Amino acid sequence: MSSSRNISGSKIKKNKSKTDVKLILNTNQKRDLLEAFKLLDKEGSGLITGRELKVALRALGFDPTAADIRQLVLEHDPDNKGLIDFKGFLEIMTLKMTEKSEKADLIKAFRICDDDDSGKLTLSKLKRAAQLLGEDINDESYRK
């Protein structure tokens, strides 16, 4: 596996067998997520419910539907009890934080290309961006 940095400087990990890009959490981020998990796990059982997962996701700025939560619980609940342990919670949060990071990177790239703040990307803007990156692409490639 190789790693690189995204536009915001966060480490990302590329899995060669898939096209997935996964954020690698640092020690502080993992510690913060463990602390959040413990706050959600009021009983101290080491497990949280889908409702508690929804609270955590909303705190991160996501607005998951009931179907989203059911799907996440299904994918990260090996015992099929409707409960998620810290490992599953960490996987879900890493996935969601990666999605958020990728979206932020796309928005940042769009804003860089949209130098007149029109909210639109034209062929000339794309050409200018490619030239700034040292790419030499012919007009036909841009039209595709």
TrEMBL record:
SMART domains: EFh (SM00054). Keywords: Calcium, Repeat. GO terms for molecular function: calcium ion binding. InterPro entries: CALM/Myosin/TropC-like, EF-hand-dom_pair, EF_hand_dom. It comes from the Eukaryota. GO terms for cellular component: myosin II complex. Residues 28-63, 64-99, 101-136 form the EF-hand domain. Pfam families: EF-hand_7. This is EF-hand domain-containing protein. It comes from Trichobilharzia regenti.
